[in-house]
Amino acid sequence: MTNWQFAEMFQPETARKVIVSARTLRKAIEDALMTYTRADLEVVLADELRLEWTHGDTPGDSGTKRDLIDAYTPNWSVPQLVGLARRIVTEHPVYNTELQTLLAEYDRSGGVGSPAKNLIFAANGPKPELVLRDAVNNDIEIVKNAEFCLVFEQTIPADGLKFQRLIDWWRDRESLTDLDDRAVGLSLHERLTESIGGNPVERLVFDVYSRRYKQHGFDIPALIPQVYLHYDPYTLRARGAQNSPLARQRMDFLLLFSDRQRVVIEVDGKQHYSNQDGTASPSLYADMVAEDRRLRLAGYEVYRFGGIELMRNGAADLVSTFFDELHQRMN
């Protein structure tokens, strides 16, 4: 035992620093599930907590209960373990003070403070028109042009919105029950691509990321294009450029690494910093960076590509390296 570990034992509970890590979460999860017998634990993990066994043969009776939990959650990241911890405390009559403390600390530290509720994205036609159906619950309804956009209304899991989750949702939405994951994923990919249109640099970013599904599988965060962040019911012409209260109504791309870790990726064309005649516009640039500040203060991470850098030689490698480093950092 190190000196700091020994000293920590004698600190008052309120003075101890709570560290949310894969190690501390895993231990708290294991401790919370120790009340089950090994036979019952196997049923809980597989059937009730819906964990997938990926080792070929069935678990069998060998090994301890901790070994069994570890085998069901190999090399899981913090967001994945948080998702499991949330299911344990909400769906099972087990109580573990340490698990509750870790979840509370995770919710306090960084990221976006409130869960995602309305994910409207990939519009391939006119702007959807929305009404606030229930202002108390923040329930919205698309009353016009709903056929041109996609709406993901399910709860965002604690470990983020993976492409596999979108595939399952798309299969149900489009009644593609006879197709395997690859065919459904291709159908969804084609629909998402439609929302990007003929923008070559945004298409480059989307295509480079899409190749990651082939390399890493579908259990990685989905790159979601054209996500509505704000909604202004008036057109720019009706309101006037100087009177628009909602900048950047749509994000180019959004990645949900967890229910709190949200990454915005923007590809900047000339319209972000210059007037229609090509002259520089300090006002447009100021609006852009002001919105970036607002998003970052709200807990989002924002990354920008200049359109011109994505038209140079080696742009695909540049974007691929960026996504490698981003995933390494977020995990």
Overall description:
The structure is a single chain. The protein has two domains: 12-108, no CATH class; 119-330, no CATH class. The two termini are 28 Å apart. 24% of the residues are buried. Strands 5-6-7-8 form a four-stranded mixed beta sheet, sandwiched between helices. Strands 1-4 form a two-stranded antiparallel sheet. The chain has a two-stranded antiparallel sheet with strand order 2-3. It has helices at residues 3-8, 22-33, 38-48, 65-72, 78-91, 97-108, 163-174, 181-196, 200-216, 236-239, 282-297, 315-330, and strands at 119-121, 129-134, 139-144, 150-152, 223-228, 250-256, 262-268, 301-306. It has twelve helices and eight strands. Helix content is 44%, strand content 13%. A hairpin with a 5-residue loop joins strand 6 (250-256) and strand 7. Keywords: Plasmid. This is AbiJ-NTD3 domain-containing protein. It comes from Rhodococcus opacus.
Write the layout of secondary structure elements.
Blueprint: H1 3-8, H2 22-33, H3 38-48, H4 65-72, H5 78-91, H6 97-108, E1 119-121, E2 129-134, E3 139-144, E4 150-152, H7 163-174, H8 181-196, H9 200-216, E5 223-228, H10 236-239, E6 250-256, E7 262-268, H11 282-297, E8 301-306, H12 315-330
Parallel strand pairs: 7-8
Antiparallel strand pairs: 1-4, 2-3, 5-6, 6-7
Summarize the structure.
This is AbiJ-NTD3 domain-containing protein. The protein is α+β, with helices and mostly antiparallel strands and 331 residues long. Helix content is 44%, strand content 13%.
